[in-house]
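Sat 14:20. Reprocessing the chain from the morning session after the first attempt stalled halfway. Input below, unchanged.
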Amino acid sequence: MNDSLQILCNTSTGFHDWLARAGGSLVVSTYQAGKVAMIGWNGAQVTLLMREFDKPLGIATSGNRLLLATRNEVTIFANAKALAFDFSEERPGAYDALYVPRVSHHTADLHTHDVAFCGSKIYCVATRFSCLAELSDEFNFKPVWKPRFVSDLVPEDRCHLNGLAIRDGRPRYMTALGETDAPGAWRERKADGGLLIDVESNEIIARGLSMPHTPRWHDGKLWVLNSGAGELLVVDPFDGRREVVCRLPGYLRGMAFVGDYAVIGMCKIREKHIFGGLPVQAANERLLCGLTVVDLRSGETVGQLEFTQGCEELYDVRFLAGIYRPMLLNLARPESRQAMTNPESSFWLRPSNEMPLNEAGAARAVVA
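Finished this time. Tokens:
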């Protein structure tokens, strides 16, 4: 990770117009660049804000909360909306949401991929241990499910379990890159060994996928990114039949649904020893890194945001409804220690907000 790395992007007219009317903003993780991107709309143009994190991967949202997986932690952020207006003392009103870190679970390096809120529980995909896990106050993680073909709970990434779909408030579908039970064995058939699994029955719904990611249940359908082929699929959860909705010029990861549209993350392929030889490479002379907005009714591309410098791989994409200019704080940043909230009020503990002392050393009230 290069702290001085400059990240640049271009947006098409279609993406600009879509985001202007979408009614919200996007949050995107890129573990390759070590950033979380907040892509917003200021009333005139698309805005891009990058915040630094250590290997950010899965993101989830629920109401006022945002969940983020990083290398050694899974952190819950909460929107301190009352503090957002004054986040920037030089530019008051620049932001309309302020996600402040509230709880961090120290997981160690589970190679955590997808994460999800489920009522009072938080689930994460512990890829290193080939299992679905629940966050715990006593342990680094609490295993709750693993594929039946994985024989042992060991840190060997035996099948590269990665994606999690929630249905009816419960973990229901997961993706893996191989039906394998040995350290890293999924790499041998990465181009066509991918799986979609039903968590409740522990049965495999579909085989023959190309490095699948990001299963999602939306509008009564099961959607999956067939990443290595650059395809968005709809899969029948009963018989595994699949329909290609669209094909895109990128290795696909991350997807957010906004009404009749899906915002899909696209990646270039850097690590040829792991990702080389995939169908998407044969089908496209050039792969893109960025976001594509797809009309789910037609499969047509509506618009694109392309990262042209400093960012080559994305992992997750989420939509923040009703929020146009979000800000996200890192635990390591001093601002996260200056923001103070309780159920009845919120405060910035900044030198500019301190009450001056009188000659006796007592604080004088500041009259606004």
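Residues 363-368 have pLDDT under 50 and may be disordered.
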